[in-house]
Amino acid sequence: MSDNKLIKAIKEKSNSLESEMSFFDHLEALRWHLVRSAIFIVIITCFVFYYFDTIYDVFIMGPSKPTFWTYRMLCHLGDFLNRPGFCINKININLINTEMAGQFTLQINSSLIIGITLGVPYLLWEIWRFIKPALHEKERKAASGFVFYATTLFLLGVLFGYYVITPESINFLASYTVSDKIQNLFSIDSYISSVATLTLATGLVFELPIIVYILSTLGILTAKFMRESRRYAIVIILIVAAVVTPTPDMMTMTVVSIPLFVLYEVGILVSAVVEKRRVKKHDDLMES
């Protein structure tokens, strides 16, 4: 009797060790996925750091110049509509550095931000490679486009934030004054922070359909709830548009609001598709 108990205890201990090893194996696999992502981001960061002069002049300082693509398109639009006020010929922005190592840390921080932004697609791919073995064949097919759609939406959001929201905000804030006696002198850190925040925040906002897909898959969100909450969503979207575009121009708010409305409607369609698949899967299970 005691021998049986001993054998049973050994088996239980063996199963426990196997599960612990499996858990640590997963942690080890996750660690290497993250390590590869970090190495990729570091490589991009070093590349940006090496060519920082060109990147700083063309991309980082682009929205502060009247020759920026957005301002030129607005000028063409003003000519087409016979509205010369659309054309922006000068941006009153004066940048200063107030710290001894300010410009050096500026180069490092800016390179890192750009490296992380460009490294997001590879990071998503590594995350997908980590979770893929744990999925069934049907789940793999259903989620096979995760990296593509998440990356596409993020990059579209970054481009929209960089070419639409950022230049409009900079143009307004740089020329806004409470009194003629107050001179606008902006620190370079403040400028970089504004450009990075507006650009990356928009990229994250554009991930709304992906978030809706995940919540709908978990059964937390439904298309019916989103349709019934549309009026509240419109108010929230208008508030978000007013916050991210600190300009009194209704046209700018409208341009920012339209993509958010579209994303919300796309989210409703995504939720409806997920719900339809879940109902079909349940019906097939009941029939079997």
From TrEMBL:
It is a multi-pass membrane protein. The lineage of its organism: Bacteria, Pseudomonadati, Bacteroidota, Sphingobacteriia, Sphingobacteriales. Keywords: Cell membrane, Membrane, Protein transport, Translocation, Transmembrane, Transmembrane helix, Transport. It comes from the Bacteria. The chain crosses the membrane at residues 34-52, 104-125, 146-165, 195-220, 232-248, 254-274. InterPro entries: TatC. The keyword Cell membrane applies. The keyword Transmembrane helix applies. GO terms for molecular function: proton motive force dependent protein transmembrane transporter activity. Forms a complex with TatA. It is found in: Cell membrane; Membrane. Part of the twin-arginine translocation (Tat) system that transports large folded proteins containing a characteristic twin-arginine motif in their signal peptide across membranes. GO terms for cellular component: TAT protein transport complex. One of its GO terms (biological process) is intracellular protein transmembrane transport. This is Sec-independent protein translocase protein TatC.
